[in-house]
């Protein structure tokens, strides 16, 4: 590598792992690394993590990248798990573990949003969003709330840490802010709602565009990461809008399916989509580039498959082999709602498991049902988007989905998804779309690109699955929807 070459570092702070990627001056990924970590559940329904675990994961992940490549970094961008909150002092030091999006402790505190259908609550409000979690903190940990100066989104805390708590690093971006249940759909903080909830306005950082320069890399952090000090730090964006940016979504109506711990289906829009009406669990958010997207966000994809795999004592290789060798059961169904659900039904109390099992059902049959159940949950979200887009009917053509995310690699799983969703799948030739999107934002913040130039850097995609007609599969999906409607009455909302 010669001295004229330039690299941009993308950091994706995920729920179960932190990923880093180095992208060159043409937008091509050159190196990638990741480090996994676990969440803490000190009480049932809680989801927390010590933020130092994120820091250690970042240092370890960067150490796995080639040193010569790190030395060429000229900008750093951030992608982060959305929702959740990190409460800090004035210097950005966390006062308690971060509270994350799967957390349901604030499930009984959503009443404050019930009548607000024009502002923050025009999007679904879930217990794991910053608004409900901060309301819980105010009631249950008042001493920490009094001591707090900032309530930061996860990726914003990490940027502050890298900037050495420099003043200009304490910002938020619209794509993350609009998903806190404390901001209007365009991302602007809803100060009237914040006051009504009794939350201190001082907690909420000023907004900056995702591609804006928001601080520079502190010398101590630079030494820890092996990256030059003074590198520009982009504001960054939420993981889903970063994935859309990194995947090259650019046309009005482009659609993306991401699968990981959860699953998201988003459809891009140049102007604000209409507020969800028919389906309570759809979202309309700001994109990393300043546009919009409509989204269905399903909580239980990888998390449900991992639970099923563990219960059945499988390793992943054998789980795939047995599941896709087994015939589908005409009676067995798996509801994947192990941690509640957001889209298309805003149902934090939803629960799941297998129903209709017979004495002759093997482990493989049970695992096959788990894969189908997760695919059916994704289809419910896609059907809601189709119906919302078509103004109350399911006739809107969302016939092609770009595919991203580490949970969608196996070709048999991809084919099942295509069959269930009734859409062709085009896998993006970039397995780390959110991390790449973050790196591109680093390039924008450093002045290497303009935001409107990024579309020309879109990665290629490969057709990996075409939907096939399957009447029996359609019947199983109809049974799945019916079972969910019946089972949800067993677990009324708290």
Write a structural description.
This protein has 494 residues and is of the alpha/beta class. It has a domain at 7-240: 2-Layer Sandwich (Nucleotidyltransferase, domain 5). It has helices spanning 51-63, 67-70, 130-140, 142-147, 154-162, 174-177, 191-196, 219-225, 239-247, 302-311, 316-325, 363-389, 411-421, 433-445, 471-487, and strands at residues 7-13, 17-24, 29-36, 48-49, 73-80, 86-88, 98-99, 150-152, 213-216, 232-234, 237-238, 255-259, 263-269, 282-286, 292-298, 333-335, 353-355, 400-404, 424-428, 461-465. Strands 1, 2, 3, 5, 9, 10 and 11 form a seven-stranded mixed β-sheet that branches. The chain has a seven-stranded mixed β-sheet with strand order 14-15-13-12-18-19-20. The longest helix is centred in the last third of the chain and has 27 residues, at 363-389. The protein is globular.
CATH architecture of the domain at 7-240: 2-Layer Sandwich
Largest sheet: 7 strands, mixed
Q: What fraction of the residues are assigned to beta strands by DSSP? A: 15-25%
Under the CATH scheme, which class of the domain at 7-240? Answer: Alpha Beta
Distance between the termini: 59 Å
Annotation field: number of helices: 15
Q: Quick one: how many beta strands?
A: 20
Radius of gyration: 22 Å
Which spans of ≥5 residues are poorly predicted at pLDDT below 50?
391-395
Helix content estimate: 25-40%
Oligomer: single chain
CATH superfamily of the domain at 7-240: ATPase, nucleotide binding domain
Shape from CA axes?
A: globular
**Residue-averaged pLDDT:** 91
CATH topology of the domain at 7-240: Nucleotidyltransferase, domain 5
Class from helix and strand fractions: alpha/beta
Protein name: Xylulokinase
GO molecular function: kinase activity
Keywords: Kinase, Transferase
Pfam families: FGGY_C, FGGY_N
């Amino acid at each position: 590598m010669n001295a004229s070459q330039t690299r941009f570092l993308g950091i994706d702070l995920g729920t179960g792992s932190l990923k880093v990627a180095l992208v060159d001056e043409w937008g091509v990924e050159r190196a990638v690394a990741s480090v996994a970590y676990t969440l803490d559940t000190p009480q049932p329904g809680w989801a927390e993590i010590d933020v130092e675990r994120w820091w250690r994961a970042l240092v370890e992940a960067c150490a796995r990248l080639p040193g010569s490549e790190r030395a060429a970094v000229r900008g750093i961008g951030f992608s982060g798990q959305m929702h959740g909150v990190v409460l800090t002092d004035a210097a950005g030091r966390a006062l308690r573990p971060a509270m994350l999006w799967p957390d349901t402790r604030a499930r009984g505190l959503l009443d404050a949003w019930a009548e607000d259908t024009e502002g923050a609550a025009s999007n679904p409000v879930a217990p794991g969003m910053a608004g409900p979690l901060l309301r819980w903190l105010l009631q249950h940990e008042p001493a920490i709330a009094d001591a707090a100066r900032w309530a930061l989104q996860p990726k914003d805390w990490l940027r502050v840490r890298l900037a050495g708590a420099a003043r200009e690093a304490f910002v938020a971006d619209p794509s993350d802010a609009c998903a806190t249940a404390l901001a209007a759909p365009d991302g602007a903080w809803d100060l009237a709602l914040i006051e009504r909830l009794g939350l201190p306005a001082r907690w909420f950082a000023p907004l900056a565009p995702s591609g804006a320069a928001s601080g520079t890399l502190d010398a101590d952090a630079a030494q820890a990461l092996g990256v030059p000090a003074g590198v520009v730090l982009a504001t960054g964006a939420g993981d889903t809008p970063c994935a859309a940016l990194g995947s090259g979504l650019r046309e009005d109506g482009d659609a993306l399916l991401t699968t990981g711990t959860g699953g998201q289906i988003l459809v891009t829009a140049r102007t604000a989509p209409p507020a969800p009406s028919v389906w309570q669990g759809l979202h309309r958010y700001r994109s990393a580039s300043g546009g919009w997207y409509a989204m269905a966000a399903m909580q239980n994809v990888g998390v449900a498959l991992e639970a099923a795999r563990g219960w059945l004592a499988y390793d992943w290789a054998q789980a795939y082999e047995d599941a896709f060798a087994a015939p589908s059961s005409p009676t067995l169904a798996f509801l994947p709602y192990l941690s509640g659900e957001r889209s298309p039904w805003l149902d934090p109390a939803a629960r799941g498991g297998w129903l209709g099992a017979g004495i002759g059902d093997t482990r493989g049959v049970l695992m096959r049902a788990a894969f189908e159940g997760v695919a059916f949950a994704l289809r419910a979200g896609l059907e809601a988007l189709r119906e919302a887009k078509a103004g109350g009917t399911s006739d809107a053509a969302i016939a092609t989905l770009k595919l991203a995310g580490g949970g969608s690699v196996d070709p048999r799983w991809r084919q099942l998804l295509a069959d269930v969703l009734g859409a062709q799948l085009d896998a993006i030739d970039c397995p780390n779309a959110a991390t790449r999107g973050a790196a591109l934002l680093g390039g924008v913040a450093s002045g290497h690109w303009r935001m409107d130039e990024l579309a020309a850097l879109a990665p290629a995609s490969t057709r990996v699955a075409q939907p096939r007609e399957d009447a029996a599969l359609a019947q199983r999906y109809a049974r799945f929807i019916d079972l969910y409607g019946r089972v949800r009455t067993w677990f009324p909302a708290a």
